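Course assignment 3, question 2. Fill in each field.
Student: A.L.
Task: Predict the tertiary structure for the chain below.
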Amino acid sequence: MLIFKQMAIKMKSSKGLGKYFLLSIGEIVLIVVGILLALQLDNWDKDIENREFEQQYYQSIYVQLLEDKGEIQGNLNYGNAYLLEYKKAIEIIANNDRSQSIELAEIALKLKFYSDFKRKSSIFQTLVYSGEIKHIKNNKLIQRLQNLESSYVYMNRLEDLHKDLIMAQLIPYTIKAIQIQPLKIIEPEMIYNYYFQNMIILTIGLMDETNELYQQTINDIDTILASSPLSNGLHD
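Answer field:
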């Protein structure tokens, strides 16, 4: 009988221990599930916050691209207006038309003007240097912005070449040949010769190349502005 009593006690103890283990496991599972849910909620909050940041960056990109487009379009219009006059000067020199010497002098003095698109920092540079590019998840947009940055760099090189030609050659040469006030050509042969004509031709060539780049860049900006995600209501 004693043996049976001991077996019964052991069975009761085993049942109590089993229930304890089950309760303990249940509590552990509930704690783990609670932690996982908290982490998931935290991740959702971070995802929402990151998406909000991303949308803010898209909005900033859209606004700056519009500003860039407007400035570049202004430079393009500016350059095209002067190109017409420079080509007129080439025609006057080629025909050796002395009756239009005053008009030629006026155009010659306008050779000092040049377009200059300058930004302290482009969108792509700002995103990279600040480390905020991590918030932009659209890789295609990043690539397009990088290509746009390359266009800006090349654009500035062409503008600098034009500026150097003006400062080093055109202005020093022109002020030797032309009296500014009252306007008069003092040395006609300096103006009506192949050297001056060549300088104007070089100027036109630089401006043509720059204007082509301006137009291509405007087209590229339009493509970016029309692309997702920038086109998804950010400009409304």
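Instructor remarks: Residues 68-226 form one domain. Residues 2-94 form the longest helix (93 residues).
Grade: pending
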